[in-house]
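Quick bug: Endosome-associated-trafficking regulator 1 output formatted oddly.
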Amino acid sequence: FVQRTEWSLQLMTQRALEAESNMEKLKQEIFILQGELESSKVENENLRAGQTTNLGAVKHNIDFALQNLHKIITGTNWSIRQLASGAESLHFVAEVLKSTGKISEVEAEKE
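Here's what came back:
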């Protein structure tokens, strides 16, 4: 039982580390997208100022940013689900350990 609990804890720890790694990657992607957004804002301002800019390039940048945002949203949702699942598993393990401790106390009292 203890080995199974330790294995569960190791698995949950591994999941949590993977989720943290994914979150770091997502943060980097967000940083890149923020740079692209700023670039798009500058192009938009230039358009409003009457300067000629390739509208196709602007549309391409917007489409690219939207695709990356959708990927980030999907990855973030997955990471959140994984973290929630890990938290539920940890709560279950804590309850099992708590009840095991109570069983040990009752058995000790019997002796």
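Actually, after a second look the formatting is fine. The two ends are 22 Å apart (CA to CA). Closing.
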